[in-house]
Amino acid sequence: MVSEDATGIWDIASGKPVAAFPPDLSFGWFDFTPDGQRVVTGNTGITLWNSETGERVARLSEKTEVRGLTLSPDGHWLGVSTRDHVKDRWQIEVWDVEKGELFRVVPVDDSINAMAFSADSAYLIVAREPLSELAVLNPRNGKYVANWPYNHNGAVWSLAVSPDGRWLVSCTSFGEFFVWQSVH
After folding, report:
1. What is the model's pTM?
2. In a domain, 63, yes or no
3. What is the DSSP string of the chain?
């Protein structure tokens, strides 16, 4: 039986836990696959979990400092902001979720605090600090296709794209949020 104070997956209808993660697990970032079958978590590594049982499915990366992660709406891509301590820089990792393989690494000169995929899964929108800009990245070729500055107070810590792809919402560390008409 899963205890009521467990970190894990909860059934919304019953309010009861259905799967628990290991008690010593610590993570700051997580997302569900679109089919709800798996959960990806990140903090000091990137792990895929079975959402029904709480069992680990795959460990994609170990000893990686994760700043943010997001799954594409089609479930194919995982975007992760990580710190490369050897090269002393931040980078965006793009993972092929089905294969469990790292597809691309995009080095960045700044910190990526938040990210979200476009509704069609074709682009990854990222919040770049301290540049104070939102940028649109093509994950297939690693090239930026658009960027624009924002006038937020504080760093952007959260991004979300509406399911129809028309809107992008950004939220700052000070709790203010902005709604943008999507570029894609």
Report:
1. 0.86
2. yes
3. ---TT-SEEEETTTTEEEEE--TT---SEEEE-TTSSEEEEESSEEEEEETTT--EEEEEEES-EEEEEEE-TTSSEEEEEEEETTTTEEEEEEEETTTTEEEEEEEESSEEEEEEE-TTSS-EEEEEETTTEEEEEETTTTEEEEEEE---SS-EEEEEE-TTSSEEEEEETTS-EEEEE---
